[in-house]
Every structure is written in structure tokens, then in C-alpha cells.
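Before drawing any conclusions, I needed to go through one protein's amino acid sequence and its C-alpha cells, quoted below without any editing.
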Amino acid sequence: MIDNTYRNSLQEVYIILQNTEDELLKKIPTSFMDFIKTNRNIDYKTNIKQEIELDKQSLLKETENILSLIYRSYWATDEEKKEFAQKDQTEAIEAEKKKKEEYSGRNIDVIFEERKESNKTSFDNSLMVIKKENFFQQLFHKIVRIFKK
């Protein structure tokens, strides 16, 4: 099930793509277009105006993300795709450096022990004892209950 925010953003993307050149639309796979059509929120009223440039309109953040995905996957040139890949790689390296700085000087075993301790939950694994009475004991207890009344 898709979140309502994403359904609203798919409606915005759909309206934007309706006003896009056919040459660019042909580059988008029909399966992706079908996904947008079937999962959009038809009842959502957008604030998109054709006379205003797209970058000056207030779009949902998810809409911007989907449009950037479309551009990156289907409309970007090979050179742009290489630049995106290089940028992604440098961002991943920087993220790794931040992790190393955060955990530098700490013993890895200590970090894992801390995580284990925070994730521990106590369970009582003891078994309940069930007394099995033989026939004579059951009969005796029933007779005693009758006389107690």
C-alpha cells in the first residue's frame, strides 16, 4: 500500500508529464508510466500552473524526488550519468569517513556489546508445572467439593 503523500506526489508528476514533450515521454518505460497512472491520487488538487516555470512552483518533496529519478534514469545524457555516479561515490566515501570518525578510538567489541545490551529483552522461559491427578484423586476432590457446598 502506497502512502497518501506519495499518491499525491504521483498525481503531481502525472500532471507535469502530461505537459512534457512527447520526445521525452517516449524515453520513459510504459510500465513506469502505468505505475504512475494507477497509483496516483486522482482526487488530489495540485497547484501546478503551466504558465509558471517548474522550478518556481511549490511541489511536494516526493514529487521533486520522483522527477529527479526520472531525469537521472531516463533523460540524462551518458556524461551526466557518469557525473551522478561520481558524485554518489564521493558522498558514500564521505559518509564512511564520518562513521569512522564517530567510532574511532572505540573498540568494536564494546560497540557490539552496547548494542546487544540495548536490544536485550528479558523473557521468562520457565515452564508451568501441570499436576496430573489419577482417577481416584479426581473422584476424591469432586466428592470433597460436593460436601463443601
About this structure: The chain has seven helices and no strands. The mean pLDDT is 85. Helices lie at 4-18, 22-25, 30-39, 61-75, 78-103, 108-119, 135-148. The chain has two domains: 4-75, 78-119.
